[in-house]
Amino acid sequence: MNPTTLILGLGNILMTDEAVGAEVIRRLEAETDPAAPLRFIDGGTLSFTLAAPIGDCPRLIVVDAAAMGDAPGSVRVFEGEAMDRQLRAHAKSVHEVSLSDLMDMARLTDTLPARRALVGIEPEFIGWGERLTPAVEAAVPLAIANIRALLTGWDAASVSAG
Questions:
Q1: Among its keywords, does the record have Protease (predicted)?
Q2: Which of 28, 47, 62, 95 makes the best surface tag, with the fewest CB within 10 Å?
Q3: CA distance to 12, 105, 147, per residue, from 79 (Å)
Q4: 107-123: pLDDT as tens digits
Q5: Is pLDDT larger for residue 93 or for residue 130?
Q6: For the domain that residue 45 is a member of, what is the CATH number?
Q7: Residue 60 near residue 99, CB atoms below 8 Å
Q8: What is the C-alpha separation between 121 and 21, in angstroms, rounded?
Q9: CA-based R_g, the chain, Å
Q10: What whole-number distance in Å separates Cα of residue 105 and Cα of residue 102?
């Protein structure tokens, strides 16, 4: 079965809480049935090479550390237009390319996933280190639960629309 949903974890695994996106997808993939129509990618610190996998799936969930002004470890889901607004508001990136740039490329090539969401986790500390802070570590199961809820909701909407 071809994957219908790309779950993309972002971040630098050597920078404490910046690694939360990679950690969430690693754990989620480990507990997910391999036959599920999901594709998991550790997107690292972003690259233009991610444009193709993003355009190949009609549904996209991005997991990343996101400075939202909340308490460390807070999890928020930005879906559809709310994701687009969040990315535009925080378009600055120290990476080769920003997630906002990748979404703009998808728009220009008419490959923007119809269903898309950003699962943001508020970091406590971003600096050299190979472990998440306790607050962000504690948020990983909540982020996974939010991803599962998105998938369930999207699946239900597809069934009722079909």
A1: yes
A2: 47
A3: 24, 19, 11
A4: 899 999 999 999 999 99
A5: 130
A6: 3.40.50.1450
A7: no
A8: 8
A9: 15
A10: 5
